[in-house]
Design a protein that fits this description.
The protein has 271 residues and is mainly α. It is 56% helix and 4% strand. Helix 3 packs across helix 5 and helix 11 runs antiparallel to helix 12. The radius of gyration is 24 Å and the shape is extended. The protein starts with a helix and ends in a 10-residue tail after the last helix.
């Protein structure tokens, strides 16, 4: 997080709320990447006291932990799928995880968080005065992580050369990682130089640059058809079937729109 990103995000949200004629109080943790933003119409910024992360900030009462746990679970499942799909030992040890894969897994991890988890974390931080309800919901905001990583590890059938201790370390490896910092001019220049050198090195590795290619519309349509058959054959949930139908229709519409953009010749139909 940087101050420029934060200021832009707050101002965009303020304009959106202003159009809806809504006003909110936004609680923000105290760090250099979160500066005070003036001239806001619909948002009132209130900064939490410094050095109170572990006791006062709701995101640190379990929300971030649950999100990371869900993400890492998705990552382990993807590794499992890679091990099962690739019998070759070399390819199995190096599953391809792209930036797009990571973004999609984070998106899924956030969607798995329930409102109850977020509500409980706010209670733990003291935003609810009813102490009885706080004690009743004292689950550390961990209700979304009902299956530990050790269960997924056993699913590897000893295909992954690590044990439960390593997985426990893996689950908390970046708890103290700094994500907000006010970069200096020297750091910015140094990062640009390092990134430029890394990019040149990667481009020189025998042309084996791994790019994340976007599936074609035809491939997406075939995948949607297969997934539709799977959903209707294995699930009783009408809501899920409806969502799958909407997705299938959207992909199919995109497919035919793409075909219309390519003008055909009359000879194409007379071959």
């Amino acid at each position: 997080m940087t101050s420029d990103i934060f200021v832009k995000w707050v101002r965009d949200w303020d304009r959106e709320l202003n159009k809806k004629k809504k006003k909110i109080l936004l609680l923000v943790d105290n760090c250099p990447a979160h500066p005070s933003v003036s001239d806001l119409r619909s948002i009132t910024l209130v900064f939490l006291p410094p050095n109170t992360t572990s006791t006062l900030q709701p995101m640190d009462q379990g929300i971030i932990r649950a999100l990371k746990s869900n993400f890492r679970k998705n990552l382990v499942l993807k590794i499992i799928a890679s091990l099962e799909a690739n019998k070759d030992a070399c390819s199995a040890k190096n599953p391809k995880i792209t930036i797009l894969d990571a973004i999609l897994m984070i998106y899924d991890a956030w969607n798995k968080l329930t409102s109850a988890t977020i509500s409980n974390c706010y209670k733990h931080a003291g935003f609810v005065r009813d102490s009885a309800s706080v004690a009743a919901d004292n689950d550390d905001g961990d209700i979304d992580d009902d299956v530990p990583l050790s269960v997924w590890a056993r699913a590897l059938n000893k295909g992954l050369p690590i044990g439960n201790e390593e997985l426990e370390h893996y689950s908390t490896i970046d708890d103290d990682l700094v994500t907000c910092e006010e970069p200096t001019d020297e750091n910015i220049v140094q990062n640009i130089i390092v990134n430029s050198q890394d990019s040149d090195d990667n481009n020189d590795v025998d042309g084996q640059e791994q790019n994340c290619t976007t599936p074609s519309v035809s491939e997406a349509l075939k995948a949607a058809e297969v997934l539709t058959l799977f959903v209707h054959s294995n699930f009783e949930d009408d809501n899920m079937k409806s969502i799958m139908s909407q997705l299938h229709n959207a992909v199919r519409t995109s497919y035919y729109k793409n075909k219309k953009q390519k003008q055909s010749k009359i000879t194409d139909f007379l071959q």
